[in-house]
Amino acid sequence: RAAQERDASVGSDPAKIGEGDLNEPTAIIAAVVLCTMRSDRRARRRSLMSSTTPTEPRDEVALAQIDQRYATLRLIEPEELSRIRSSIDRMGILSPVLVATAIEDTRLVLVDGFKRVRIVTDRGDVAIWVRRIAVDATAAKVAMIAANAGHRGLSDVEEAWIVRSLCREHKLTQVEVGKALRRDTSWVCRR
Partner of 127 for a Cys bridge, out of 60, 110, 150, 191, CB 3.0 to 4.6 A? Predict the structure, then answer.
């Protein structure tokens, strides 16, 4: 029940898309990203349980092409990095990192997968599996929160940094941020 309430608070119900008129494209993109990420997790679990290989071709990109400008909105937790590093060493990278293509023409901007990118960089790898989404800077930050909903995800401080960035850099009001994230204005205000 708590997980359902948490999921409902971030707008995971695609049937509710279109109820607001403020920043509706951003909310739609966030909902699509969230649904895509959840279906990827389900598919990954199924593929791990069976011996078949995924049919989706891997889009590998050189690490040098990935812009990590939003890494400043994330905390570095050594114990979490260690846990993920051992998982990658055992099973490899099971899901692609999320990159935005519409922020800058020549660069792919990392939206989700900062820990995975850090680990593969430390290992000396030169490329990583990516999923591209065509979103602007505002929608990319909304997608950062949506992509991390429902699992360990973001800390309150990281959510606060993203909300503050949406308000200050993108000039959104707290009401607009709340609608984009499918959260109540009081949640935004507490961040």
Answer: 60
DSSP labels, 125-188: --EEEEEEE---HHHHHHHHHHHTTTSS---HHHHHHHHHHHHHTS---HHHHHHHHT--HHHH
**Distance of alpha carbon 91 from alpha carbon 72, whole angstroms:** 28
Residue 120 — left, alpha, or beta (φ > 0 → left; ψ -120 to 50 → alpha)?
alpha
Tokens in use for 31?
Answer: 């909902």
Spatial strand order of the sheet with 66-67 comes to 60-62, 127-133, 97-100, 108-112, 66-67
Please, how many CA atoms are within 13 Å of residue 82, restricted to the half-sphere of its CB? 3
Mean pLDDT by 10 residues, the chain (191 residues): 41 38 49 52 42 62 93 90 93 93 89 94 93 93 88 85 93 91 86 77
d(CA 70, CA 114): 9
- Nearest CA to 73 out of 180, 153, 176, 187 is that of 153
Residues 6+ apart with CB under 8 A from 161: 72, 73
Residue 158 near residue 151, CB atoms below 8 Å: no
Global pTM reads 0.68
